[in-house]
Q: What sequence folds into this?
């Protein structure tokens, strides 16, 4: 959080969101990822991580939308994970 105050760039916010997500703080992760995605909307990886956080908070519809948007942008490192997560959500 101190790094984010010094450098509120999308990359730092993305890292902060990931830390919150790993600590089980899904709602805080969503907040950080949303700001990062708003600043760098072309990042499929950031959209993927936002989708994971949304899913963990129970916002399944928005999570689906974020997974779909991330996958529509093309190849990115977490694409297979995104497809798997999206398939699980659509099966619910």
A:
């Amino acid at each position: 959080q101190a790094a984010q105050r010094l450098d509120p760039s999308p990359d730092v916010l993305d890292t902060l969101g990931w830390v919150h997500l790993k600590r089980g703080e899904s709602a805080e992760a969503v907040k950080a990822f949303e700001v990062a995605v708003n600043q760098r909307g072309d990042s499929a990886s950031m959209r993927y991580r936002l989708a994971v956080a949304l899913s963990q908070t129970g916002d399944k519809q928005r999570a689906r939308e974020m997974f779909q948007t991330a996958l529509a942008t093309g190849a990115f490192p977490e694409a297979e994970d995104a497809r798997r997560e999206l398939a699980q959500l659509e099966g619910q």
